[in-house]
Amino acid sequence: MKRLFQQSARTSKELDDQKKANADYAKEIDKNKKDAANLRSDFDDRLKLFSKDFADIIQAVMGAIVEATIAITADGFVPHVTRKGELSGAALDTIKTLAFDLAAVVSSIEGRGDHPRFLIHDGPREGDMARVIYGRFFRYAVELEAAFKSPDYASFQYLITTTTPPPKDMLQGSRWMLDPVLDSRHKDKRLLKEDF
After folding, report:
1. Pair type for strands 67-73 and 76-82
2. Cα distance between residue 186 and residue 115, in whole Å
3. 131-134 — which CB contacts under 8 Å span 24+ positions?
4. Distance CA 136, CA 114 (A)
């Protein structure tokens, strides 16, 4: 009989210990759920801001008649451009890629993200898009630079290598054109004197 009482006392203590452990686990689970909800909310907020940056760039180059967003799927980041339905095509794919990359730079400038703010678009397929849209990417970069108190304080570099001339006021002799002009036909005139 004494042994049964001792066994009952041990079982009762083990039960109390388990209840306490369960309560601690429940608190930890609640804390983890709150942390996960906060992370999800922070991520959603960041995605909305990045999507807004992307949309601003798309509208700057294509006009306010389009809407643009970034979604995240199992495939990763998926940019969407719509105007009475989803738009697609080779030109739009090029535009979305350029705008996405620039949005990463803009987000970093605004203190969100860790992009190094150095971007090279090597020969984007300007032949795929209307020349006016192509020129607007150059204009967007100039306007982004103008957001700083002086060009010397602009904390980004954006290079576009191209065979199509930029807008007239950005041609040879302007502060935006590399001098000497790069030439892929001669190794010593290539970017970093290399063929990538």
Report:
1. antiparallel
2. 32
3. 131/164, 133/61, 133/62, 133/91, 133/95, 134/164
4. 25
Could you tell me if residue 72 is left (phi over 0), alpha (psi between -120 and 50 degrees) or otherwise beta? Answer: beta
Respond yes or no on whether the N-terminal peptide bond of residue 180 is cis (omega within 30° of 0). yes
Long-range contacts of 143-147 (CB under 8 A, 24+ apart): 143/60, 144/105, 144/106, 144/109
| Number of residues assigned to the chain | 196
Distance CA 195, CA 119 (A): 18
pLDDT tens for each residue of 106-134: 999 999 989 999 998 887 665 667 788 88
Global pTM? 0.79
Residue 79: count of CB within 10 angstroms of its CB: 20
Please list, in sequence order, all residues whose beta carbon lies within 8 angstroms of the beta carbon of residue 129, skipping any fewer than 6 positions away: 91, 94, 95
Distance in angstroms (rounded) separating the CA atoms of residues 60 and 137: 8
The predicted-structure confidence for 1-27, as pLDDT tens digits, reads as follows 777 777 877 888 888 888 888 888 888
Other beta carbons within 10 Å of 151: 11
| Cα–Cα dist 180/75, whole Å | 41
